[in-house]
Amino acid sequence: MTNSGFQLYCGDPPVPGALHWNLDPLLVGALAIAFGVYALCYRKTEVGEPRFLMGCTGFAVLSASLITPLCNLSVALFTARAVQHGLMLLVAAPLLVLGRPRGRAGRFEGFAGPLAFAAALWFWHLPAIYDATLQNNAVYWTMHLTLFGAALSLWRVLLGQGAAVFSSLFTGVQMCALGALLTLSPRPWFSVYGATTWQWGLSPSADQQLGGVIMWVVGGILLSGFTVAVLARMFASAGPVRA
């Protein structure tokens, strides 16, 4: 529940048929400026390259997660927040890392990125902390910015070399663990959804379980597939073993 006179950033919890887009001019302007700076980092001859197109796709996915009615729906359903974060952290972030201009950012090595991502993910799913994201807009944006920043650091490691396999396994295990806890919990964790899920045909427990499955299964499958691809690339680059 919200305080009297307080306006949630993504609007009041919606009911079916009353979803709305988030056309906050500050957000739209910030995304436009960020994309403009990104495009300026490319030379004209590079604009058609796959890296640039991946970056553009990353910006499009990030924008969709924040501007479409998914933002408004996340006020009512934990499942929608899980989808929103999946798009931001597992789709937009790696595309932006893959699409960075050549020579503009050095390769990040080490295990700091995966650790920071795990710490941020678990911290923001602590019940009292999570509830605060829908009770205070400054906390809401701190959550998004820290999670997305940690995801960029994570994918700079995963898409690099050296620690990629171990980091991917670690990230997949901890995401699956959190998703499993959310799915198998006998009671809802987040009080902010106590009165908002019923309009969508879900109890708070069912909503949390569905969101947990998304994190557990979808996130686990994606990272497992990524780990297999990295291992396959490593074996292929090693060449045949000579007797």
Features:
mainly alpha, 9 helices, 243 residues
Outline of the structure:
With 243 residues, this protein is an all-alpha fold. The protein has nine helices and no strands. Helices cover 64% and strands 0% of the residues.
Task: Describe what this molecule looks like in 3D.
There is one protein chain. The protein has 243 residues and is mainly α. The chain contains 9 helices and no strands. Helix 2 packs antiparallel against helix 4.
Largest sheet: none
Q: Please work out how many helical segments DSSP would assign.
A: 9
Structural class: mainly alpha
Give me the count of strands.
0
From the spread of the alpha carbons, the general shape counts as globular
Range of helix content:
55-70%
| Average pLDDT reading | 87
Computed Rg? 19 Å
Q: Separation of termini? A: 69 Å
Strand content: under 5%
Uncertain runs with pLDDT below 50, 5 residues or more? none
Number of domains: 1
> Helix and strand string, N-terminal first?
HHHHHHHHH
